[in-house]
Amino acid sequence: MATESAFKAFGLKNTVRALVEEIQALYRADSLPWILGYSGGKDSTASLQLVWLALQDLPAVERKKPLHVISTDTLVENPVVSGWVTLSLQKMQETATAQGIPVVPHRLTPGVNESFWVNLIGRGYPAPRHKFRWCTERLKIKPSNTFITEVVAQSGEAILVLGTRKAESQARARSMERLAADRVRERVSPNAALPNCLVYSPIEDWNNDDVWLFLMQVPNSWGYNNKDLLTMYQGASEGGECPLVVDTTTPSCGDSRFGCFVCTLVEDDKSLQAMVHNDAEKDWMQPLVRLRNLLDNPRGKSKEERSGTGPDDREVRDFRRMGGLVQIYQRKMDDSDDRVADYIPGPYLQEHRCRLLRELLLAQQALLQNNRAPAHVRESELISVEELREIRRIWVLEKHESEDYLPVIYEEVTGQPFSGPATLESSPWGLDEFKVLQETSENELQYQLLRELLHVEQRYRTAARRAGLYESLEDALKRSFYDDEEDAVRRARHRHETLSEASVIDGGMLR
């Protein structure tokens, strides 16, 4: 989306000076705290620099209210970007303290129960897709909105400073123009999702070239190196270049998108692959590329084989939904408008979740032992002990997977015993006994039923009150009473057809 430079009329220096004065006027206008969203990318860096310059020029007595700089770490970020942001926040705090600038950096993370790996490997949520984008809300929106809501609760209102720009896309431009129509004062718009939170976008009229020109010409306010930021964008761009745009055919660094290395919402993670391709020293990232590709394509099919078929994960997902229900929908046939009744795949199967855990731990070991990886990568973890403990709890206590495979997998991969209790429940059954039970069961469904019934019996045997026992037994039977998957789907289709016929007979009303 080509737009005219914001500097064309008055030049870089005068445009920046006018913005700094505007920011100072807004800052002094009231006592509302400011919150600035910082991702470490070019737009949020430019916005923060402008606000920092404005605060720097104010007399110390007028710097009365804080500027909270919030950065949301999903814990599955591209490690190069994550390291850049972490070090930037540290430098920011040091410089702000030395200069007497009221900048307060905050690194926000999702709760353990909301983390990517707990949901994917623990609960078995499939890798995110556009029709089931469960990750963004949990990993990014919720941590930041929780922080903003808490600040608003304390002060009544707050001003949120964002690096959004109209030139990013036509959709973004339309959205910003709609909000601008409801402005309560100059340059400040209401936030559609957060009550009592006003939005200020200082660089909303800048294009990509304006942002880079400003970052290259004006030194970073907290002592970081903006040229290193440019280099990072270069490494994440196909072809390794990040030029200033001189015509509509010239590619721009604005097309580089940094995000989670596990992201499956795009067909290929071009920024991650470009970093590895453009810089031989980043070959240590190969385990992350392989792990991401496993999430996206667990069966390892070629692009030609997958063309038009959608996510290739049906074989590694349960035919039942999370609660045990087999749900039918009308699936559109590939070559026609005809539809056929089919089941909606549920969570990942136990075998695949164990495989994902093993591959994740192997990738973590590879990074920890690779001397070419940056120190912050070798000193960090792809998955924390707290997340592993929560995954183990979900597997054993919620999914009734009493084999308790997590400590076994952990020790096999790392060579170290897993830190935690030897068992989560006192059970006379061990892994060997469950293997015998599985071998002697007629099929996997019968094994799952017997395993769950044994788990329910064990849980209630020593309980002082046995309220809920019959409901737990009934749930187990409902989940696994079928002969096999084919039998379960046949029954679900019959139920679906019966309900559809009843709906027609009753004039569209199910009774």
Distance between the termini: 53 Å
What structural class do the secondary elements suggest?
A: alpha/beta
* Quaternary: single chain
Number of strands: 8
Task: Explain what you see.
The chain has helices spanning 11-28, 42-56, 79-99, 116-123, 134-155, 170-180, 208-217, 226-235, 270-278, 286-296, 303-306, 350-368, 375-378, 385-398, 405-414, 431-440, 444-461, 469-480, 485-505; strands spanning 34-37, 67-72, 103-108, 158-161, 188-190, 197-200, 328-332, 339-343. With 511 residues, it is an alpha/beta fold. Among the domains are: 11-235, HUPs (Rossmann fold), CATH 3.40.50.620; 384-480, no CATH class. The strands form two sheets. Strands 3-2-1-4-6-5 form a six-stranded mixed β-sheet, sandwiched between helices. A two-stranded antiparallel sheet has the order 7-8. Helix 2 links the parallel strand 1 (34-37) and strand 2. Helix 4 packs parallel to helix 14 (385-398) and helix 10 packs antiparallel against helix 12 (350-368). The longest helix is centred in the N-terminal third of the chain and has 22 residues, at 134-155.
Keywords:
single chain, six-stranded mixed β-sheet, 19 helices, 511 residues, 7% strand, alpha/beta, Rossmann fold
